[in-house]
Amino acid sequence: MNVDQKLRDLKDEYQSDIPTSFTEKDKQNIFKTISQDTYPKRP
Questions:
Q1: Nearest Cα to 20, choosing from 11, 28, 29?
Q2: What is the pLDDT of residues 14-43, one digit of tens each?
Q3: Are 39 and 33 in contact (CB under 8 A)?
């Protein structure tokens, strides 16, 4: 088993465990935060 194959196996294993997309509720919360101007200001 070479390094590339090990890397692919690890990627496949963890990719299913880590959510990589936003839910509709996440999108609404982000939009709400942006529209209300409640995010921290940069100095």
A1: 11
A2: 877 776 777 888 888 888 888 876 566 777
A3: yes
